[in-house]
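[Q] Does anyone have a clean structure-token version of this?
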Amino acid sequence: MFRASFRVIAVVVFALTLSGCISARSMVDPGFQKVTYDDVKRRSEPLRLKLAVEFQRNGEHFPKVDSTIQDQAERVLRASGVITPTADGPDGDIRVVVNNIADKGTAIAKGIGTGLTFGLAASVVTDSYEMDVMVNSKGKTAEKRGIRHAIHTTVGNALLPEAAEAMPPSTAFGRVFEQMLLYALREMQNNGEL
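[A] Here you go.
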């Protein structure tokens, strides 16, 4: 499970659980341009690249999450048909950095406010993410930096927008990660870099 990046949400949920009247639901930010595997052009022979990942929280490395990010990146890259992660990377390397930009103080304050009203005063906590992808292959370098996405989690008696799909925070993160990485691959292809 992907728990480490949602520590703030866990604190909020715990505080609200004490009231006995809360529910927490996450949704992927609908403002991000949806990118699917069909939007990425599969290669007849995927590049075999060595994968390096790093998860950060507010710009500081948070190594506990690296293995989860590694697994997700490998899955998305293989399924894309563009890159096959390998141990030796005969065609080069790819580096994926994800930064969780969190405002812990605001999230905790909102959680306490919701808890004190037994979930009636709902709150929305937003986890913002930024991804950088760098590819070095066959003497060329391609970069896509500053890809931004978010997860919105409602706590208490709050309604999600009608079109929103409620899901656990770990599922929402998986979708956000997948969309950002596919977006990076598509943009690099559109720019003739990959």
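[Q] Thanks! Anything notable?
[A] Residues 49 and 89 are 4 Å apart (CA to CA).
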